[in-house]
Design a protein that fits this description.
By secondary structure, the chain is α/β, with parallel strands linked by helices. It has 13 helices and 13 strands.
């Protein structure tokens, strides 16, 4: 979703996903709306309800709010406009980033108000953005998936810029600077527990349709830099064959525990993850995808995304397949069937993350200059039974629709409103 929040992929040696620092830092009447008397229209979804979503990124004000420091009224108006746009495009879900940098878009008991709201971390914006988003989304028949970034603390490496009461300042031993940012150390059990508690605060407060994580686990590799977790590995790494296995176990524990706790607190809320789209290349592992991506989640982010699906630890997975059909290093047409096979028989729903932001971008190759490229993605995915929907990155591109690629998707595939 992702998403700077989703800048994610490398093919060959270049990163090609949704973390939108490279980009300029910038409603469907169904389902729950029926309870308010709205008539449901027939769904175009196959095999039951399909998900049609869009990511709304808040980190560095990518999508919303358009800039920090707007009045509460203006912030709310911008949010409502995005929800209304989702309705207009016949979508049925909004994935809203509510914890972008160890902060909060709700009155959290654990973490400060986000600086992306007011321009000052810890400053009360004068309203409850997440509470409003849940209420207004449901009024429009939209699902609200709350998108949390687990480990990222700050987009800089100066702890002194954090509010004095920030947990990262109270517990400096939890913090690792890396690649120009600050991260919580995934190798510390107390960190994993605290992060879960902080996110679950929102689950307890609000009727969220889903808890959603993006592609940031251990950080993407930065050439010439080392993620310094030596002390944690010395303390907790005994019994593992190597550091990589220990790191993967740390992330496995976090995913498994979080899923269980979400369902215990609010059984109707799903737990979904949107990872970088390549688990492992076939040259690395015969069960991997026929790709030559420069990043593999299993090896580089220590995230066994395939394993989580096969073990049923999550309710849905939405791999970021941000590449065009026919790309040699990471072909959309090869990755969709690979993920379809991974999800088969697991009960885990498979959605596909779509790179709407590339459509019409002059820096992208020729296929992305064709308004029909994304529509072809949905046509191809319709041939695979496990694919149950798509999420588009990101909201401002749904609105701007630079070359009409989103409208082409709506015209070709979203003829009817989706079930809520």
């Amino acid at each position: 979703m992702r998403h700077l929040s989703r800048q994610g992929a490398r093919t060959g040696s270049r990163r090609m996903s949704r973390r939108a620092f490279t980009m300029a830092a910038a409603s469907v009447a169904a389902g729950l709306a029926m309870a308010e008397g709205a008539a449901a229209l027939p769904s175009a979804g196959r095999r039951g309800r399909e998900l049609r979503g869009m990511w709304v990124a808040t980190v560095v004000n990518i999508d919303w709010p358009s800039k920090p420091g707007l009045s509460a009224e203006d912030q709310r108006a911008e949010l409502i406009a995005y929800l209304d746009e989702a309705v207009r495009r016949r979508l049925n879900a909004v994935v809203l980033q509510v914890r972008p940098t160890a902060d909060a878009f709700w009155p959290s008991r654990y973490e400060p108000w986000s600086e992306w709201l007011t321009g000052t971390q810890g400053k009360d914006p004068g309203w409850d953005p997440l509470g409003t988003a849940v209420r207004e989304a449901h009024r429009r028949g939209l699902e609200l998936h709350a998108w949390f970034n687990p480990f990222r603390i700050a987009m800089h490496t100066d702890p002194g810029r954090l509010v004095p009461t920030h947990p990262a300042r109270l517990h400096p031993e939890w913090v690792v600077p890396y690649g120009g940012k600050l991260y919580y150390n995934p190798g510390l059990p107390e960190v994993r527990r605290f992060m879960q508690d902080a996110m679950l605060d929102a689950v307890r407060r609000y009727r969220l349709d889903a808890v959603h994580w993006d592609d940031y686990f251990y950080p993407y590799p930065v050439a010439g830099q080392t993620f310094d977790d030596d002390e944690a590995f010395a303390r907790y790494g005994a019994g593992f064959p190597d550091r990589a296995s220990w790191r993967r176990d740390n992330i496995d524990r976090l995913v498994r525990e979080m899923g269980r706790r979400v369902h215990r607190i609010r059984p109707g809320t799903r737990f979904g993850i949107s990872p970088f789209g390549v688990w492992r290349n076939i040259a690395t592992d015969p069960t991997g995808s026929d790709t030559r991506a420069g990043v593999q989640t299993y090896d580089d982010l220590y995230a066994d995304t395939r394993g989580w699906v096969r073990k049923g630890w999550i309710d849905y997975i939405c791999p970021q397949l941000y590449w065009h059909i026919g790309l040699a290093a990471a072909d959309y047409a090869k990755l969709v069937p690979w993920w379809d096979e991974v999800a088969r028989g697991t009960g885990v729903r498979l959605y596909v993350g779509e790179a709407l932001y590339k459509a019409g971008d002059p820096a992208q190759p020729a296929p992305w200059q064709d308004p029909a490229e994304l529509s072809r993605h949905l046509t191809l995915a319709a041939g695979y039974r496990q694919v149950r929907g798509h999420i588009f990155y990101s909201a401002k591109h749904v609105v701007a629709d630079r070359i009409g690629a989103m409208q082409r998707v709506v015209d070709d595939h979203y003829t009817y409103r989706a079930d809520g």
